[in-house]
Amino acid sequence: MSKDRYWRAISIDSILPEHFPNVALFLMSGGNYVLYKAPDRVFTVDDYSRLKRNNTEFLYVRSGDMESINEFMERGLAKMLSRDDLSGNAKGRILYQTSVNCLIDLFESPETTDNQIRCRNMVQHILQQLATDTHALESLKSIVGHNFYIFTHSVQVAALSLLVHSELFTLAHDEMVDIGTGSLLHDYGMTFITSEILERNDALSDIEYYKVKQHTQQGYEYFKHSGNYSEIVLNIVRYHHERYDGNGYPTGIKGDDIPRSGQVAAICDVYSALTMDRPQRKANSHTDTIMIMREEAKKGAFNLELFNNFLEIINERNVG
Questions:
Q1: Are 7 and 63 in contact (CB under 8 A)?
Q2: Burial (Cβ within 10 Å: 0-12, 13-18, ≥19) of residue 201
Q3: Which domains, from first to last, does the chain contain?
Q4: β-strand 25-29 against 32-37: which pairing, if any?
């Protein structure tokens, strides 16, 4: 097991001087975690200023300290996002990192009512930030590589899906929350895949790829059996790898037989996956990603009108 699993990155913008929980804070140096602040010392304004001068974006904490940190960050999230002294980029890092931390807990205990409520609260914070900050998506890149891929990817897909739905369709607030929840949970079925397969640095065998493809149906069946999630959530989990021409999975349905939320999630999922580092490959640039996706759209992978609308939206938001 990678030692990085025992650590979590914390944006220093999230570490409120004099008030942050009393936990040990570490710097990353040469691939090692070096103690910066012992748990019995208060993180001060001078600490914050010193780290800022040194262009330090993240400190690290032991994963076992995350319960108290999550409680602190989620309780004060609305206040931090309303602060005038924080830039939009800093607010974005705080929001997305808090969302990632919440999602990790939800993946570990998806049937815990408190975790479900926390997830829906995170969706509402993302919605609010997207509505008030036209550059909110840019800060997603700040947390990529500092946490596990599946969680940062899921938060990015949720933000993109919420943005597309808010720009193109008129939906009730509860429906938007379901869109965000389904997008956050779309890859939950990956938890049924062995870490040996998920962490492979080389190409998967046909059998391994078949197992990975089962994650959509497995996630869908798990959440459907729980009875705690709406049809919108279930559709996103099940259909985010379907393709408009019928060449997707798990069911191979095509065209507008694919629920709209699933079609949007499919586009956002591919964009996010291509623009993030993976164990098997480095991230593509925004320009290269769009070129790849445009070719796939021409071949029938996506609803062409919906894909073109997606391009307009992310270009307007300067995501690239």
A1: yes
A2: exposed
A3: 1-66 (no CATH), 76-316 (1.10.3210.10)
A4: antiparallel
CA-to-CA distance for 8 and 70, rounded, in angstroms?
A: 11
| Distance from C-alpha of 233 to C-alpha of 249, rounded to nearest angstrom | 17
pLDDT of amino acid 158: 95
The DSSP-derived string for 89-104 is: HHHHHHHHHHHHHHHH
Tokens encoding 42: 């208060």
pLDDT tens column, 182-236: 999 999 999 998 877 877 777 788 898 899 999 999 999 999 999 999 999 999 9
User: For residue 44, which phi and psi values (nearest 5 degrees)?
Assistant: -105, 175
Chain-centre distance of CA 269, in angstroms? 10
Residue 147, judged by CB atoms within 10 A of its CB (0-12, 13-18, 19+), counts as buried
- Residues of the chain where predicted confidence (pLDDT) is lower than 70: 1-5, 138-148, 279-280, 318-320
Contact call for residues 223 and 233 (beta carbons, < 8 A): yes
Nearest to 12, CA basis, from 80, 82, 100: 80
Residue 150: what pLDDT? 84
Report the alpha-carbon distance of residue 179 to residue 186 in Å, rounded.
Answer: 10
